[in-house]
Amino acid sequence: MNVTIKDVAKRANVAPSTVSRVIADSPRISEKTKRKVREAMKELGYHPNFIARSLASQTSQVIGIVMPSSADQALQHPFFPEVIRGISKAAHEKKYALQMSTGEKEDEIYEEVIEMLQGRRVDGVILLYSRVNDKLMKYLQQNNFPFVVIGKPHQRAEQITHVDNDNYGIGKEATQYLIGLGHERIAFVGGNETYLVTADRLLGYKEALQEAGLVYRKDYIIYEEFLQKANQEGMRKLLSLGEPPTALVVVDDLMALDVLKLLDEMNLRVPDDISLVSFNNTLLAEMSRPPLTSVDIHIFQLGYEAAKNLIEKIAKPNEPVKRIIIPHKLVKRFSCDYVRK
């Protein structure tokens, strides 16, 4: 038996147009009516056609996910699979599909996303990064296209819905923890310096030092995206200073693993010779040797809230701009110890 919209309408005692609006998940239909229609669809075994649903609602029912770099490279970092898991959960709840950028370089990603938007293949996009002077973010603003940023926008943050952690507070708290263990020579190992998350955590680090009356040293600040053999010069130089640091604040757990490997090569023991705090609290932090003290930024929740708020913006274009701050927690393990004088 071929069940139609009219059959569902009859079972639910509503007009066929109401069934179509429920299929399109129209915000104009009450939750009570939606439940009644969906129950009728389930009882009759009716499954709406995806294309028909998109035409009825004049939407694609697809969210675009924009990576900071090539998908292959980014997905090697444990942050991105976990944040996409959160996005996927919220999208599934509202029956949205996902489309991911696949370009290798920044310009390729930009062109790809522009085609995605102009072809109306997505109803909105989530940027999984926030960098200085990002031309894609400017394009989205200028064309009034629904988007949400994970991270703090570089400019006009009050005009852009974004989901973030208090990265200034996170950097400050991690540094204060090391200061509380007696460390005075604390270095900051950042990632890509064009990302706002790195800049904010550095500001927090600097403030913690100043409040404790400790000297902020530029030779204790390095930026390394990946500590492969070709990129170890900065770290080796830092650890070979006349007064080397006794503790490190490292941008994330993946970088921290590279740091641990380098420290082992240089016969420096963690935490006996040097302490280390990182960020993200991924599974890597728990499995490393020693297990890392790491700040849990609740990555899944960052993705979930970003998708939830984007879908709200798509359904209600006049939805006010929001700044959602996800809480964090310092998880203490065995990569830190009291300083040995």
Brief rundown of the structure:
The protein has 341 residues and is an alpha/beta fold. It is built from 14 helices and twelve strands.
What are the key terms here?
elongated; Rossmann fold; 14 helices; 434 Repressor (Amino-terminal Domain); 12 strands; six-stranded mixed beta sheet; 341 residues; alpha/beta
Please characterize this protein's 3D structure:
With 341 residues, the protein is α/β, with parallel strands linked by helices. The protein folds into three domains: 5-57, lambda repressor-like DNA-binding domains (434 Repressor (Amino-terminal Domain)), CATH 1.10.260; 62-165 and 299-327, Rossmann fold (3-Layer(aba) Sandwich), CATH 3.40.50.2300; 167-296, Rossmann fold. Helix content is 44%, strand content 14%. The protein has helices at residues 5-12, 16-23, 31-44, 50-57, 71-74, 79-93, 106-118, 135-142, 167-180, 196-211, 233-239, 253-265, 283-287, 299-315, and strands at 62-66, 97-100, 124-127, 147-150, 162-164, 186-190, 221-223, 247-250, 275-279, 293-296, 323-325, 329-331. The strands form two sheets. Strands 2-1-3-4-5-11 form a six-stranded parallel beta sheet, with helices on both faces. It has a six-stranded mixed beta sheet with strand order 7-6-8-9-10-12, sandwiched between helices. Helix 13 (283-287) links the parallel strand 9 (275-279) and strand 10 (293-296). Helix 1 (5-12) crosses helix 2 (16-23). The chain is elongated. The model has no long low-confidence stretch (mean pLDDT 90).
